[in-house]
């Protein structure tokens, strides 16, 4: 018998089963053959939050949460963040290899060609209330892109997929910048294709009266933050993109599902929640009291903890370096002092140490975005800009994987047994 197998005994029947092990997994569908009585459908695995279930085979991102390792297509995140541009990182994630100079030039030119959005988009965004949350606008707007590009339904066509990939990468910064302008009541600024990807986005957000003085340190810092967020294997939003995409819907709709998932405070919304938490604490002197409040079950220390990382999130380490560079330019942020004190105490406190709770990517990113001039409720939009290449790469990988079927989990039914309908006049 091959050693790559698992032998289990069903104590209900005494029968023994041998299940194949491939890449450290057994197939949940193999459990269906383990039956107690004929016709019971066999065993299922119960894993409500996919805590220990691989939902796909992926060659994009590798994470070792215990060792604090993150790699894109095999390249350590530290090296990618130091040497690559954001579009180069996107190419790596999407194509699987680093681009040559001419491949990168073509990719950049293709993206540059598609930065404009249909003029109706301005009207569409104008329809949102003045105080609409930027993430709500972004997810609605990206979903609406599907109505502008019905050809995106041709998901089986490689060339069409490439075009949608380019459109998404090119238009998301424009939409994100316009969402920012809408929130502030400022007129929309059109893309400037003489600028690079980041420079164009920053210009579209901050230009006033035709003028904006770019700060290269802040732009490179923003670019590094986007690179650090570019993919993170099967997180909540990526699973949403894959799951929704498995219905063969167009990529704009699938990505808008990812944006919806990212919006939540336990996922991308955490950086916004960190800033609100720092505001609530108010002063470094209140930190010990706040820590006690968290330990007593009064809430979570936002920006701490991660489903996969049970040591320091490698992205958080890099973000701290970026924070130093940014604060050198913008001056110290008083909230940083509170954040540093929270981190110092939490890293020593038994409650956090025993639960392996370390700062995650969101702990410092909000402070940096705020120093750059972005309002708190806009932070997650920046996360979405960064995560976009990962979502598209994972969507395409899912589509071309012959093992893909429409996502359709099972359940264990725990509701009432069959009973007769009770007419209204007989109900208690
Ligand atoms: N503050 C205080 N306690 C925490 C925190 C936290 N941030 N995170 C987890 N815990 C505690 C839980 O209360 C639990 O304690 P218990 O065993 O005594 O009940 C234990 O640690 C395990 O927590 P789980 O909820 O089981 O951990 P899970 O892996 O499901 O959650 C999550 C991960 C959602 C990220 C969680 O740590 C959290 O809510 N963190 C705060 C929100 C946040 O920063 N999210 C951003 C994540 S990174 C990202 O999405 C980009």
Structure characterization notes:
It is globular, with a radius of gyration of 24 Å. The strands form two sheets. A three-stranded antiparallel β-sheet has the order 3-4-5. The chain is mainly alpha-helical and 428 residues long. β3 and β4 form a beta hairpin. α6 packs antiparallel against α17 and α11 packs across α16. The N and C termini lie far apart (62 Å). The mean pLDDT is 95. It has two domains: 46 residues, no CATH class; 347 residues, Citrate Synthase, domain 1 (Orthogonal Bundle), CATH 1.10.580. The site of acetyl coenzyme *A has 18 residues, from loops.
Salient structural properties:
428 residues; mainly alpha; Citrate Synthase, domain 1; 2 domains; 3-stranded antiparallel β-sheet; two-stranded antiparallel sheet; globular; binds acetyl coenzyme *A
Write the layout of secondary structure elements.
Layout: E1 5-10, E2 15-20, E3 61-64, E4 69-72, E5 75-76, H1 77-83, H2 86-95, H3 101-113, H4 120-126, H5 134-148, H6 158-184, H7 197-206, H8 216-228, H9 236-245, H10 251-263, H11 270-281, H12 287-298, H13 314-330, H14 334-348, H15 350-354, H16 362-372, H17 379-400
Antiparallel strand pairs: 1-2, 3-4, 4-5
Bound molecules: acetyl coenzyme *A.
């Amino acid at each position: 018998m091959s050693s790559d197998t698992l032998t289990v005994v069903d104590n209900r029947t005494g029968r023994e089963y041998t299940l194949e092990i491939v890449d450290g997994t057994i197939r949940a569908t193999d459990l269906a053959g383990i039956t107690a009585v004929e016709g019971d459908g066999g065993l299922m695995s119960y894993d409500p939050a996919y805590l220990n279930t691989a939902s796909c085979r992926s060659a994009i991102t590798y994470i070792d949460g215990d060792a604090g390792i993150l790699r894109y297509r095999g390249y350590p995140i530290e090296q990618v963040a130091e040497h690559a541009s954001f579009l180069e990182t996107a190419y790596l994630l999407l194509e699987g290899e680093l681009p040559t100079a001419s491949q990168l030039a073509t990719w950049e030119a293709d993206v540059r060609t598609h930065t404009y959005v249909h003029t109706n988009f301005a009207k569409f965004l104008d329809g949102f209330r003045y105080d609409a949350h930027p993430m709500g606008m972004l997810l609605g707007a990206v979903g609406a892109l599907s109505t502008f590009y019905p050809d995106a339904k041709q998901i089986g066509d490689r060339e069409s997929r490439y075009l949608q990939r380019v459109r998404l990468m090119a238009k998301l910064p424009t939409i994100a910048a316009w969402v920012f302008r809408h929130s502030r009541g400022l007129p929309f600024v059109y893309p400037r294709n003489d600028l690079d990807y980041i420079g164009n986005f920053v210009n579209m957000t901050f230009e006033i009266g035709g003028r904006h003085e770019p700060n290269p340190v802040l732009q490179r810092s923003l670019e590094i933050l986007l690179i650090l967020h570019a993919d993170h294997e099967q997180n909540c939003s990526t699973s949403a993109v894959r799951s929704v995409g498995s219905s063969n819907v167009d990529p704009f709709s699938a990505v808008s599902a990812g944006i919806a998932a990212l919006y939540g405070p336990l996922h991308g919304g955490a950086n916004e929640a960190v800033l609100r938490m720092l505001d609530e604490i108010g002063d470094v002197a209140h930190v010990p009291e706040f820590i006690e409040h968290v330990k007593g079950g009064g809430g979570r220390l936002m920006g701490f903890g991660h489903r996969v990382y049970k040591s320091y999130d490698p992205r958080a380490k890099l973000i701290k370096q970026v924070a130093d560079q940014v604060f050198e330019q913008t001056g110290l942020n008083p909230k940083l002092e509170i954040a540093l004190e929270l981190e110092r105490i939490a890293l020593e406190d038994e409650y956090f140490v025993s639960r392996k709770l370390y700062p995650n990517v969101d702990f410092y990113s909000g402070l940096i975005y705020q120093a750059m001039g972005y309002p708190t409720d806009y932070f997650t939009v920046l996360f979405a800009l960064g995560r976009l290449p990962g979502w598209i790469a994972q969507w395409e990988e899912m589509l071309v994987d012959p093992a893909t079927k429409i996502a359709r989990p099972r359940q264990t039914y725990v509701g009432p047994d069959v009973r007769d309908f009770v007419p209204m006049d007989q109900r208690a």
